[in-house]
Amino acid sequence: MCKSSVLLLALCTLLVAPVFAAAPITVSGAWIRLIPGDAPCGGYLAIHNNTDKPIELTEVSGPDFKRIELHHSMGAGGMSHMTPVKSITVPAQGEFSFSPGGYHLMMWRRNKLDVGQQVPLTLHFSDGWTVRATFTVKGAAG
Description:
Blueprint lengths: L2 H14 L8 E9 L7 E9 L5 E7 L3 E12 L2 E6 L3 E3 L4 E4 L4 E7 L8 E8 L4 E9 L4
Parallel strand pairs: 1-10
Antiparallel strand pairs: 1-2, 2-7, 2-8, 3-6, 3-9, 4-5, 4-8, 9-10
């Protein structure tokens, strides 16, 4: 291989490499539990932090909802209750999962939702980052 071919190959590698780098924050398994009537819906997802610093989720917003809160379900003495939380910390190079019976999004609807619908939500982090994620609407059984 001639010097110019090696140089061209090296230059192309440098230009393409950033395309394959992991995004700082990614979301997987995003879904909404649709509850019949006017009851709030639950939202669930996993947030992956691919950075070397913890990140703090402070807010979630979306056009189909009047209000979305971060919540935690807890059980004590045979009783279960939900508590709003101000933020969620996702550890460096780690993951935080929202799941039924634990941390979740409490979502008050503005618009009608249908099972199978794809709903965009924006996750807001304390450092100013935002991540847009698509949630799939599922029935009450999940």
